[in-house]
């Protein structure tokens, strides 16, 4: 996770102070990229302990097309609670756009199924894209999508994936987002009979909140450790049939957790 550390150090060095929607204030860079070759191990930050369980459950919830926090809460995941209304609803966020995008002519588009079909049928296609950025529905979403578009590519028998994240909370959100899309790359590759390739993370407004700076410096003072390995249990399940227990992370030896307040 050297790339994560280098970019964090750059935000501290070169970041420009910005006001932001939450009133917290950030140091921000515009436009940055990190690459993770999934052959090198699973990109889970080692310089603080991360809760992989929350990350897996959140991804399964997106893939189920769910946009209500109840399912997360039943599995003890509370990361979306602050944004939900009194019924637990978040509006038409990721799950809705990924699995059931409503087009102007009344069609319901399952972007994930269509992506898998396209990768299988035409692996050379340069149109392998899923987008959560639905301008007509942004106003009804509790939060506009941050990880808003991803593209896959098949090359040399491997599935590469690039994410565009328009807004990136580098200390709290980004370690979750990297692990989540790395998992998705593994799952999509398996679904299509390919090996997982490179995960490319591209960020737009890449920021450290002003109340995360001490935590970031503490983290940068720690030595980066070897990456863990991910094993996915094969029960013959399809992309939508995974359970939390199917994911096993081995040799994860992180430094202790570092707590930080989330900006709402
Ligand atoms: N400011 C902000 N940052 C985000 O990363 C973020 C949002 N808002 N809003 C929507 C989602 C919710 N996400 C979140 C919310 C909270 C944590 C968080 O508090 N993480 C703790 C541990 C939480 C746990 O696993 O239960 C951490 O130390 O990583 C992480 C991602 C990512 N997103
Ligand atoms: O998956 C996520 C979701 C959210 N974030 C962060 C990025 C920003 O700090 C906030 C969103 O605020 P906006 O004003 O809508 O940009 O949440 C993230 O890093 N990852």
From TrEMBL:
CDD domains: TS_Pyrimidine_HMase (cd00351)
Domain Thymidylate synthase/dCMP hydroxymethylase: 2-264
Keywords: Cytoplasm, Methyltransferase, Nucleotide biosynthesis, Transferase
Positions bound to (6R)-5,10-methylene-5,6,7,8-tetrahydrofolate: 51, 169, 263
Compartment(s): Cytoplasm
EC number, UniProt record: 2.1.1.45
InterPro entries from the UniProt entry: Thymidate_synth/dCMP_Mease, Thymidate_synth/dCMP_Mease_dom, Thymidate_synth/dCMP_Mease_sf, Thymidylate_synthase
Signal peptide as annotated in the record: none
Keyword Methyltransferase attached: yes
Keyword Transferase part of the UniProt annotation: yes
Binding site for dUMP: 21, 126-127, 166-169, 177, 207-209
Top-rank taxon: Bacteria
Pathway where this protein functions: Pyrimidine metabolism; dTTP biosynthesis
SUPFAM superfamilies: Thymidylate synthase/dCMP hydroxymethylase
Free-text function comment from the UniProt entry: Catalyzes the reductive methylation of 2'-deoxyuridine-5'-monophosphate (dUMP) to 2'-deoxythymidine-5'-monophosphate (dTMP) while utilizing 5,10-methylenetetrahydrofolate (mTHF) as the methyl donor and reductant in the reaction, yielding dihydrofolate (DHF) as a by-product. This enzymatic reaction provides an intracellular de novo source of dTMP, an essential precursor for DNA biosynthesis.
Assembly and oligomerization: Homodimer.
HAMAP family: Thymidy_synth_bact
PANTHER family recorded: THYMIDYLATE SYNTHASE, THYMIDYLATE SYNTHASE 1
Protein name: Thymidylate synthase
Source organism per UniProt: Sphingomonas swuensis
């Amino acid at each position: 996770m050297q790339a994560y550390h280098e970019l964090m150090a750059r935000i501290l060095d070169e970041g420009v102070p910005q006001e932001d929607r939450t009133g917290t204030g950030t140091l921000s860079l515009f436009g940055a990229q990190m690459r993770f070759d999934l052959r090198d191990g699973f990109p889970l930050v080692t310089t603080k302990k991360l809760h992989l369980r929350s990350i897996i459950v959140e991804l399964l919830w997106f893939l189920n097309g769910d946009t209500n926090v109840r399912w997360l809460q039943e599995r003890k995941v509370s990361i979306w609670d602050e944004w939900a209304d009194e019924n637990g609803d978040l509006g038409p966020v990721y799950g809705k756009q990924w699995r059931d995008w409503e087009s102007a002519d009344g069609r319901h588009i399952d972007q994930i199924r269509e992506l898998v079909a396209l990768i299988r049928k035409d692996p050379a296609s340069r149109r392998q894209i899923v987008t959560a950025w639905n301008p007509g529905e942004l106003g009804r979403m509790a939060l506009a999508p941050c990880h808003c578009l991803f593209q896959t590519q098949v090359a040399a028998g491997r599935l590469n994936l690039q994410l565009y994240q328009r807004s990136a909370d580098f200390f709290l959100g980004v370690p979750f987002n990297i692990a989540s899309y790395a998992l998705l790359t593994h799952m999509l590759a398996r679904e299509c009979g390919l090996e997982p390739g490179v995960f490319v993370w591209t960020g737009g407004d890449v920021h450290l909140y002003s109340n995360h700076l001490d935590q970031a410096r503490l983290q940068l003072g720690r030595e980066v450790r070897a990456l863990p390995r991910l094993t996915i249990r094969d029960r013959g399940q399809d992309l939508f049939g995974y359970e939390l227990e199917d994911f096993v992370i081995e040799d994860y030896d992180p430094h202790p957790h570092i707590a930080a307040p989330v900006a709402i």
